[in-house]
């Protein structure tokens, strides 16, 4: 028998493409549609009846024309990487492969980045955008003069590179403003741009508008919450790039905490003003009563008031609180964007205080008098008049009454006996405390006598007399002073002068010249007239010649001349007549030539 074995040592069995035919003592192996894979050493083995074998070999060579297999075009690479442009070309015998770029064989290009590898692929080290183009892969079988080629497009993809025209943007909130953020990117192919905020993709809606292939992001109706970083992301098949731009939103100052406070006298108070805004506003306090201002770190001259603050919050501390600290306080928050002001009120509670310093009153039986108790208190106080433990007025009494007018509680007393005189108590109470003030109702008396009566000026008909007021007015005001006196003739009073005066000075007129007079003074109050002072005696001046008159005149029409006489001292008696003397006066005139 005769058997055939393929180059792999496998016994060949007839099939559709490979057929073994026996022709007597001969055997034929036929291979249809032979290809390169069929090449190799084939073995023919003959075996006789005794099992002895002999064999012979046949070398099969298959010549293949130039063939390009699975050529891919374009072939894409990332800029900066080492590229290998693949060109699979086969033939039998093996082809000679060369590469051309811009009609020039790459091995002749003075750039050591280009090399043809053992597998006939083209290697380009650190490929860049300028290497992009059409490369020709050319195969030759010189023994047959066969040549063929394939053009392969090489594309170099460039990773995105973002260009931010501005790294930060400023806007002001709550003014209806809109702002546009810009982001441009280079790269090949052109990158796709997207925006992110807080890790979330920004999509176009009422708030955001995207234009220019997403290179422009417009944020409408800026609010404080829009502040912060925005991420621009650029992506293509070569990679991606991202950069951050920051939106700073300025917010007008807004006071968010300020309330009225209440404290008590001599206690402590803390006024708090908190404001928000961007940038953080500075806070200033102003006391309305005197216009004094306080900023962070300030202290009042007396050290009682101090301002402390941090990051938009200010506290005004007051210790040893005084009543003068009460009232309106203005808090102003200001920044370069604007300002905001609000007011609060500090209410100081204090125990009752009594306004009037008069605690002693005088009256007499049958004379009604009002004793006033005026009270200041916060909160308002309840006020009572007491005598001992009794609250006034006592039932079934008509000469004691109380009534209110404003902040005053009036005690009206119409004394009927000595028992109505003495001490009375005004008591005022609120939740801070109780205070009382004692008043005394004394019995009034007539004034004591004036003293020190003396004559200051004398003339023929007048005398100016002064005196010292009484040391005691008797408990009630002096209404006026009563003077009494008259002229003395042969040691007795022949006439009387009586006069009411309000001051410690009296001018006596219509007196007789060269006459002796006496005068005394008494003080009068509501209770009555007191005793007279000691008598003062004086004598008027005698009559004398009048002093020369003072005259002046002016000419009138014709030969008339009007003469005016100024009134002068008459010497103590009426002027009866004026004697006028006049004469002509000649005037000599010297003329010189």
TrEMBL record:
<feature type="domain" description="Fibronectin type-III">
    <location>
        <begin position="446"/>
        <end position="543"/>
    </location>
</feature>
<keyword id="KW-0130">Cell adhesion</keyword>
<dbReference type="InterPro" id="IPR013783">
    <property type="entry name" value="Ig-like_fold"/>
</dbReference>
<dbReference type="InterPro" id="IPR003961">
    <property type="entry name" value="FN3_dom"/>
</dbReference>
<keyword id="KW-0325">Glycoprotein</keyword>
<dbReference type="InterPro" id="IPR009138">
    <property type="entry name" value="Neural_cell_adh"/>
</dbReference>
<dbReference type="Pfam" id="PF00041">
    <property type="entry name" value="fn3"/>
</dbReference>
<feature type="domain" description="Ig-like">
    <location>
        <begin position="352"/>
        <end position="442"/>
    </location>
</feature>
<keyword id="KW-1003">Cell membrane</keyword>
<keyword id="KW-1015">Disulfide bond</keyword>
<protein>
    <submittedName>
        <fullName>Neural cell adhesion molecule 2</fullName>
    </submittedName>
</protein>
<dbReference type="InterPro" id="IPR007110">
    <property type="entry name" value="Ig-like_dom"/>
</dbReference>
<feature type="domain" description="Ig-like">
    <location>
        <begin position="1"/>
        <end position="59"/>
    </location>
</feature>
<feature type="domain" description="Ig-like">
    <location>
        <begin position="160"/>
        <end position="248"/>
    </location>
</feature>
<dbReference type="GO" id="GO:0005886">
    <property type="term" value="C:plasma membrane"/>
</dbReference>
<keyword id="KW-0732">Signal</keyword>
<dbReference type="InterPro" id="IPR013106">
    <property type="entry name" value="Ig_V-set"/>
</dbReference>
<feature type="domain" description="Ig-like">
    <location>
        <begin position="253"/>
        <end position="347"/>
    </location>
</feature>
<dbReference type="InterPro" id="IPR003599">
    <property type="entry name" value="Ig_sub"/>
</dbReference>
<feature type="domain" description="Ig-like">
    <location>
        <begin position="64"/>
        <end position="137"/>
    </location>
</feature>
<dbReference type="Pfam" id="PF07679">
    <property type="entry name" value="I-set"/>
</dbReference>
<dbReference type="InterPro" id="IPR051170">
    <property type="entry name" value="Neural/epithelial_adhesion"/>
</dbReference>
<dbReference type="Pfam" id="PF13927">
    <property type="entry name" value="Ig_3"/>
</dbReference>
<dbReference type="InterPro" id="IPR036179">
    <property type="entry name" value="Ig-like_dom_sf"/>
</dbReference>
<dbReference type="InterPro" id="IPR013098">
    <property type="entry name" value="Ig_I-set"/>
</dbReference>
<keyword id="KW-0472">Membrane</keyword>
<dbReference type="InterPro" id="IPR003598">
    <property type="entry name" value="Ig_sub2"/>
</dbReference>
<keyword id="KW-0677">Repeat</keyword>
<keyword id="KW-0812">Transmembrane</keyword>
<keyword id="KW-1133">Transmembrane helix</keyword>
<keyword id="KW-0393">Immunoglobulin domain</keyword>
<dbReference type="InterPro" id="IPR036116">
    <property type="entry name" value="FN3_sf"/>
</dbReference>
<dbReference type="GO" id="GO:0007155">
    <property type="term" value="P:cell adhesion"/>
</dbReference>
